[in-house]
Amino acid sequence: MIEILKKRRRAVFYFLIVLVILVSSISVLWLPPEVSTGMNSTGSQNITEQESGLSSLPLYIPLFAYFALILLPVIYKRYDGESFVWGHRFFKGAILGFILITMIFLIELASGFLRIEDLIPDFQGILIAGIILQGIVAFGEELPFRGYILPDMQKRFGLWKAVIISSFFFSLLHIPSILVLKTSGVSIIIMVLTLTFAEMLLAFCYLYDGLRMSIGFHFAWNFFQYHVYSMREGFGGIFKITSGYQLVTGGNLGPEAGLLGLFVVIMALVIVFIWMGSINQESQQTQV
User: Fold this and answer.
1) What is the number of domains present in the chain?
2) In this structure, is residue 206 part of a structural domain?
3) Which of 3, 16, 122, 223 is most buried (CB neighbours < 10 A)?
4) pLDDT at position 229
């Protein structure tokens, strides 16, 4: 009987996570065109006084959704009498995320795929808002997926199946928001693959040290991609850039929709996998 109740409670958790993410993704469709496109060329939001009323209410739905994503695993963990594995290496994860996204940015810049047209004046507000936003996003995605779902699946399916299934599950939940971007079929496939491999990389960060490392990586990857290097349209980065060769760079959709981003994430995944394997071998040898 207790086992049945646990399964039902777990099913409710998964259902709520899917529901919250779907509502958050679909809410973008309810925004006026000026709001949904984010920032204009001067870095200020394209929101008129009339649009700041009821028509812009869906703008806050993703924010509420992320707070729900943070609270749900906290409530469930407490109810189950379990605690999160936090770890200690936030900055190690942040440095890894910074290095990877900076590598992509510099390669695109050096190859001429991306050009910096201008620096947005008074960008301090953009950076502060970006830190707050990506902090919420990192916590809102890491707590449910690495903090709850990955350990839950690991108990039932084993480590490797849990890493693969939870990562693919996360990428599938992004499909509605990807479709909202009205991108091509090839870009959708690339984005799903990139997100899946990126989630596996985040899973390895979690398995190596815990949530602090995966949160650090997630935060730095998003913050520098969106708000510093301006590689994704609609997030108001500090640079005004133009990018071509969409298949390689992802264009306005950012490196997650481009082949270069996919290649760098896979390369990092392989390196981290080999590195973690060597650490495990060393620990086993010391135990013997």
Assistant:
1) 1
2) yes
3) 223
4) 92
